[in-house]
Design a protein that fits this description.
By secondary structure, the protein is α/β, with parallel strands linked by helices. It contains 13 helices and 23 strands. The protein has helices at residues 20-29, 48-55, 72-78, 89-96, 103-110, 123-127, 129-140, 166-179, 212-223, 251-262, 304-311, 328-338, 380-396; strands at residues 6-11, 33-38, 64-65, 68-69, 81-87, 115-119, 144-145, 149-152, 158-162, 187-192, 197-200, 203-205, 227-232, 244-247, 267-270, 277-279, 298-300, 317-324, 343-348, 360-361, 363-367, 372-374, 378-379. The longest helix has 17 residues, at 380-396. The structure holds cytidine-5'-triphosphate. Residues 191, 251, 270, 272, 274, 276, 301, 303-305, 320-323, 335 line the site of cytidine-5'-triphosphate.
């Protein structure tokens, strides 16, 4: 899996830096070409000599060394993957805010490849809102996180913040390369977020969808090599670089955007919470307060999933979502039929941690071939991976 893969291993100033020796060994043994970059602080924990001997490449740490300039841009472009393990609290903060006071940071800012982070620090530092904010910010850039372990820490205390073991990091990277090409050449259309249906120039009918699930799906497809178009309703979430994003507001705009690209789509995932009804005639001017009640005349919107289901070919895979509050399974299966979808992802508002706004979700997937899988509550990133794995299995079944 790792044979011939070009990996930059960034090492920062943390006691866990000693584990980098084993990390390099595992990667090199698996056939990867490893170049190590250390921050100046890392050199206090581990010698470049051990790392250059094991990696069979010169270890870099300065922007200029021996009268020559280290070309951080070319290093950033050379790599198939950049792993920073351990990444300290300080380097995390600098990365999150674009600081560039050493070679590792310059390469990070120039890297066009996926970046994987394995943090290491004491529990209090790890749990501090500033660190957690930085982590979220880096994840929003598309950087992947290898979760910290709970165990013995450098301070002598025990808790969260211990870097994952080299074997675990190696596992993560191996499966990353295994999946990174699975959707190469596939064009994926994803709808996400709410829609706003205008009542008058200043008011709308909307819903609480955040867009998080659809964005996680878009990121997952993109990381597996797909060419992704994300049709996104009004969401306040940050969308990572590298995705084609078409921002829309209403159900009608979302439908138009989907119609334009659907013919050239291999997989369409309709994750948006689309309004079923829209004001029949939005007022041209602001509606003034008058009577005790206000009657709003609504008309049906186009059901995008159903429309696409009616025109889809045998080579296209169409996935819908169902958010239900009662009779969940029956309603989800009915939607699968009625909208001619290949799969329906059900989330029930009765499950804690599922649905709008949460960072987690709990889903079941039903498919046209009679398949049913029930998943546990997971982060939306992990749920996205489950959904994409299910779609890939369905296509190959
Ligand atoms: N959907 C759509 N266009 C619409 C309404 C819904 O594409 N105008 C899609 C959603 O993106 C989702 C699926 O249809 O993938 C199911 O949406 P949901 O609101 O649960 O179902 P509805 O068909 O609207 O039925 P109901 O609201 O009665 O449950």
């Amino acid at each position: 899996m790792l044979k011939g893969k070009k990996i930059i291993l960034g090492i920062t100033g943390s006691i866990a830096a000693y584990k980098a020796v084993l990390m390099v060994r595992l990667l090199v043994k698996a056939g990867a070409d490893v170049k190590v970059i250390m921050t100046p602080a890392a050199e206090g924990f581990i010698t470049p000599l051990s790392l250059s001997t094991l990696s069979k490449n010169e270890v870099l740490s300065q922007l200029s060394q021996n009268d020559s300039w280290a070309n951080h841009v070319m290093l950033g472009r050379w790599a198939d993957l950049m792993l920073i393990a351990p990444v300290s609290c300080n380097t995390l903060a600098k990365m999150a805010h674009g600081a560039c006071d050493n070679l590792l940071l310059a390469v990070y800012l120039s890297a066009v490849c996926p970046v994987v982070l394995a943090p290491a620090m004491d529990e209090d530092m790890w749990k501090h809102p500033a660190t957690q904010d930085n982590i979220r910010r880096l994840q929003s850039f598309g950087n992947q996180l290898i979760p910290v372990n709970n165990g013995e820490l450098a301070s002598g205390l025990s808790g969260e913040g211990r870097m994952a073991e080299p074997e675990e990091i190696f596992q993560f990277i191996s499966s990353f390369f295994k999946t990174s090409n699975e959707l190469a050449g596939k064009r994926v259309l994803i709808t996400a977020g709410p829609t706003y249906e205008m009542m008058d120039p200043v008011r709308f009918i909307g819903n609480f969808s955040s867009g998080k699930m659809g964005i996680a799906l878009a990121k997952e497809c993109s990381s597996r090599g797909a060419d992704v178009t994300l049709v996104l309703g009004p969401s306040h979430e940050t969308v990572p670089e590298g995705l084609t994003v078409q921002k829309v507001r209403s159900a009608a705009e979302m439908y138009e955007a989907c119609k334009k690209v659907f013919d050239d789509t291999d997989i369409a995932i309709m994750c948006a919470a689309v309004a079923d009804y829209t004001p029949a005639e939005p007022a041209k001017e602001k509606i003034k307060k008058s009577g005790e009640t206000l009657v709003l005349n609504l008309k049906k919107t186009t059901d995008i999933l159903k429309e696409l289901g009616a025109i889809k070919t045998a080579n296209q895979t169409l996935v819908g979502f169902a958010l239900e509050t009662n009779n969940e399974k029956a309603f989800a299966q009915k939607k699968l039929e009625a909208k001619n979808a290949d799969m329906i992802v059900l989330n029930s508002l009765n499950d804690a941690g599922a649905g709008f706004g949460h960072d987690t979700n709990k889903i079941s997937i039903f498919d046209k071939k009679g398949g049913e899988v029930n998943f546990d509550t997971k982060s939306k990133t992990a749920v996205a991976a489950d959904i994409i794995n299910s779609i890939i299995s369905y296509i190959h079944a």
